[in-house]
Amino acid sequence: MSTSGAFGVQILSSGVALPQRVVTNRDLESLMDTTDEWITKRTGIRQRYSVDPAKGENTRTLGLNAAKQAIERAGVTGPDLDLVIVATMTPDMPTPATAPLIAHALGTNDAGAFDLSAACSGFVFSLNTAAALIGSGAYSTVLVVGVDLLSRHVEFSTRGRSTSVLFGDAAGAVVMRRCTDPAKGLLAQAMCSDGGGATHLYIPCDKDNMLCEDDDPEAFPLDQLRMHGQQVFRFAVSKFPNLIAETLDAAGLGPNDIDHYVCHQSNARILEAARQRFDIPTEKLRVNIDRYGNTVAASIPLVFDELNTEHLIKPGQKVMFLGFGAGLTWGSSLWQF
Ligand code: UT7
Could you tell me if the CB of 329 is within 6 A of ligand 1? Predict the structure, then answer.
């Protein structure tokens, strides 16, 4: 855990982009052996969005649309950006990365641009990276995008029901800028991993290169997400509260000092367990998984954008961003607004 450098850093704005197609739990009932009741009770999810590639919806276009909304709301233009970071585990292609394509489409002037792959922790890791680079004085105006299309890696069938009901496609973005008030910006942060838990959540691409000996490469198509749901659940419910406690300790704060906990939306039950552990009021920990499902790197900016557009984030407030997911990875980013 460490705090940022000599300059202040502000999150100026946010933006989101969603595919046109909404897929409800009832829609899934017609595709696989599942029920609205099972999905709602186990996860809190009622619907999710899913891209239609034939309509030109992909990682690049969704990320770009969220970015355009964020930079317009920030009152900046493409040439003002000197760095673009895209958090994604579902780029359209292995290379080029998504970030240079978005930077180019926004008309930046040779801005640095790279993708950051840390699954559901990707947006938090990107916020921390951007804040450190701005705080050090190296960069001034940075766009961070979180975008993921897990519909590409799940099967909408009874065989794939344990993962396909959970995930949704979306993009979210923020614009961050250096400011003269050094009190604004990161108060504490954490970026952690445990590759020993990689097999709990992974997408194998090659039958000779499976991470888990117990996983039968013939039993399920390659390029599809394999998840050991209960292990992930146990990891999340134990790690998530520890992460909150460690981040509060690092900043010398208590749970009540935080105005908003902006959390990765993987399961409403996981969020509720953390909320109860710290006695956090419901209005301080927004849950929107019912409308979007788990959107991986996009889930945190989707929550932040809701709070932001409802004018609930105010100057002087403290906001803790929290993410955890495949890798295994987990991280926090505690901000003074
Ligand atoms: O960003 C991180 C992403 N991943 C997560 O956060 C996942 C964390 N894990 C979870 O949220 C939960 O483990 C799940 C919601 C995925 C599953 O809930 P669970 O209570 O752990 O269920 P389970 O895996 O133990 O499965 C219970 C039963 C099984 O049937 P049997 O063996 O008891 O007959 C499954 O086959 O539920 C069955 N099942 C379903 N039934 C209806 C699994 N998926 C479905 C489904 N609809 N979609």
Answer: no
Say yes or no to pLDDT of 4 above 70.
no
**Residue/partner pairs of 209-214 with CB below 8 Å, 24 or more apart:** none
Question: How many whole angstroms from 210 Cα to the centroid of ligand 1?
Answer: 22
Rounded Cα distance between 265 and 120, Å, is: 9
The radius of gyration computed from the CA coordinates of the chain, to the nearest angstrom, equals 19
Is 120 a catalytic site residue?
Answer: yes
Residue 219: pLDDT band (50, 70, 90) is confident
Tell me which residue has tokens 């990765």: 264
Ligand 1 within 6 A of CB of 59: no
Active site residue 311: no
Q: Residue 266 CA: which ligand 1 atom is closest?
A: 6
pTM over 0.70, yes/no: yes
Instruction: From 162, 194, 199, give the residue whose CB has the most ligand 1 atoms within 8 Å, as the site to mutate.
Output: 162
Of the pLDDT bands very low, low, confident and very high (cuts 50, 70, 90), residue 2 is: very low
Domains of the chain from N-terminus onward = 8-179 (3.40.47.10), 185-336 (3.40.47.10)
pLDDT band of residue 206 (cuts 50, 70, 90) is confident
Two tokens at 237? 């419910």
- Closest of 331, 90, 326, 89 to residue 197, by C-alpha: 326
pLDDT, tens digit, for every residue of 306-321? 999 999 999 999 999 9
Give the model's pLDDT for residue 5: 61
Kindly state if the Cβ of 42 falls inside 6 Å of ligand 1.
yes
Going by alpha carbons, the residue nearest to atom 30 of ligand 1 is 162
Rounded to the nearest whole angstrom, what is the distance from the C-alpha of residue 282 to the centroid of ligand 1? 25
> Which tokens go with 83?
């760095």
